[in-house]
Amino acid sequence: MGKKPKIVILGAGYGGIVTAQRLQKELHYNEAEVTLVNKHVYHYITTHLHMPAAGTDSVENARVTIDTLIDTKKIQFVKSTITAIRPEQKQVELEDGVLDYDYLVISVGGEPETFGIPGLSEHAFSIRSINSVRLIREHIDYQFARYKNEVDRPDCLTFVVGGAGFTGVEFAGELADRVPYLCKNFDVDPTLVNIINIEAGPTIMPGFDPELVTYAKDVLLRKGISFKLGTAIKECTEEGILTSDGEFIKSQTVVWTGGVRGNSLLAEAGFETMRNRVKVDPYLRAPGHDNIFIIGDCSIVLNNDGKPYPPTAQITIQEAQACAANLLSLMRNQSLDTFKPNLKGTVASLGKGEAVGVIGKTKITGFLASIMKKVIDLRYLLIIGGIPLVLKKGKW
Ligand code: FAD
Ligand code: NAD
């Protein structure tokens, strides 16, 4: 019998965990050796992160220990940070070793896109991991405590959300829900708190259905959020932000939600990239590397109009399922299937009991949409962990 092929999966986010689970299910006994590498011992549910960031849900509901999601007798789990990918040597460098592979799945997600705006990396927060959202939550609480101890510091109660895409809007909605509790706990007059969502585009959620955008904006205005639209953040300092209309907004809390780029590991590995994302072939492989699949936020898949699909969990999960199937076909010398996403719609939360979305061709708003958002979130828990995970981590 020949040597067992080695499959290495990089990253245990949506793409990595679903690929690993699929391979675990479909591989024959002794057919391959599979290793999953991730920075942390847990998988985090990125689509929940705006809630623990604002403090409206616990961090624990947004993470699941990886060894409860995979069978570690079938898939080896390595907790480590990947420092380099070497396609020519068929090797991956980790902070504490090197892994050889025959087949590689790259699903290391993305990084905040700061567009080189001065000071953003140094002074703004971003919603991207369990650790980053813990910091945001603690920082927000600290600003309320600080306000009560320092004289005349309205900047402690001014919260800037930079970018009103889906992440910005979802976070602003949650933060507005938390403000009354914070004000009560810290004896602060709620009228002194400002949440300002700044968006470079002409509307919030640019490109989304205009009727739903109007609905969302009205809900968020009612919650006390103010918007500065058609205005870009130009600089971020320790004191606040400078906007394209020349205004300087003093704020001790700037949360940057201005978009994502791929993981810098991709460009450093020598792949041709656009903002660190690799345009994959129809089977989800890196061009020129038949043994390397790239999925999720670090890949680009084009739609029929030649435009990239937005990087979402929804498409990543489907890519992971297709990637696992194609990887097995490749190993078994069978033909590969072209990846065709089957997108069901989008629902964005606007805080407690409010959301907007499109499912198929149907627009939904309000309580119904918020229930639909919960159903989508619960469905993901069901896919990766069955009913026990839904009961343990699901938020109703
Ligand atoms: P990720 O889920 O980010 O996983 C990447 C994994 O790789 C992580 O576990 C990370 O720790 C690991 N990793 C990265 N670098 C290294 C390294 N050097 N070494 C080791 N491990 C590493 N999409 C939707 O469809 N619906 C939503 O409702 C939605 N809500 C969102 C809400 C927020 C607040 C945000 C930020 C995004 C949301 N998205 C949503 C987008 C969605 O979360 C992403 O598209 C999705 O997470 C991409 O999955 P991924 O596997 O590519 O990356
Ligand atoms: P995004 O790229 O969708 O939105 C970023 C926003 O920031 C844009 O509206 C952009 O115009 C704005 N912006 C950029 N530079 C700016 C500047 N200098 N000043 C002010 N505004 C600026 O990024 P996102 O919201 O983080 O979303 C990332 C991906 O995750 C998207 O594909 C999104 O669809 C997905 N997502 C989905 C959901 C959901 O389905 N409920 C929730 C969150 C995120």
Describe the structure.
- By secondary structure, the protein is of the alpha/beta class.
- The chain has 2 domains: 6-39 and 80-110 and 262-342, FAD/NAD(P)-binding domain (3-Layer(bba) Sandwich), CATH 3.50.50; 120-258, 3-Layer(bba) Sandwich (FAD/NAD(P)-binding domain), CATH 3.50.50.60.
- It contains 9 helices and 25 strands.
- The protein has helices at residues 14-26, 50-54, 120-123, 130-149, 166-186, 210-222, 264-268, 313-331, 366-393; strands spanning 6-10, 33-38, 42-44, 63-65, 75-79, 82-86, 91-94, 97-100, 103-106, 110-112, 125-126, 158-162, 194-199, 225-229, 233-236, 240-243, 248-250, 253-256, 260-262, 278-279, 292-294, 299-300, 345-349, 355-359, 362-365.
- Strands 5-2-1-9-21 form a 5-stranded parallel beta sheet, covered by helices on one side.
- A hairpin with a 4-residue loop joins β16 (240-243) and β17.
- The protein is globular, with a radius of gyration of 22 Å.
- It binds flavin-adenine dinucleotide (FAD) and nicotinamide-adenine-dinucleotide.
- Nicotinamide-adenine-dinucleotide binds at residues 115, 117, 162-168, 170, 198-201, 206, 232-233, 257-260, 310-312, 346-348.
